[in-house]
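ok here's HEAT repeat domain-containing protein, seq below lol
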Amino acid sequence: MSSSSEKLEMDTIATKDALRLCHETQDINTILALTAHTDPIVRQRALKEICPCRVKDDIDLFWERVIEMIDDPADNVREQ
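and the structure came out like this:
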């Protein structure tokens, strides 16, 4: 995944801005960092954005993170 400092930086982004960034970013490290956001709504949206069916590519980092998120504490994220 991305660096610890980038992960912490993403956690400080307001939910509204993080949701917008989930939709707008094309940066792999950014979207992966957003999957660790403190708000489960952001994590769910970021997970949706890295879905292989949406990305239309087989990116190992995305698959690894999708599998990790099976154990997310939030129901909405696990159900995604």
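fwiw Residues 44 and 77 are 5 Å apart (CA to CA). kinda neat tbh
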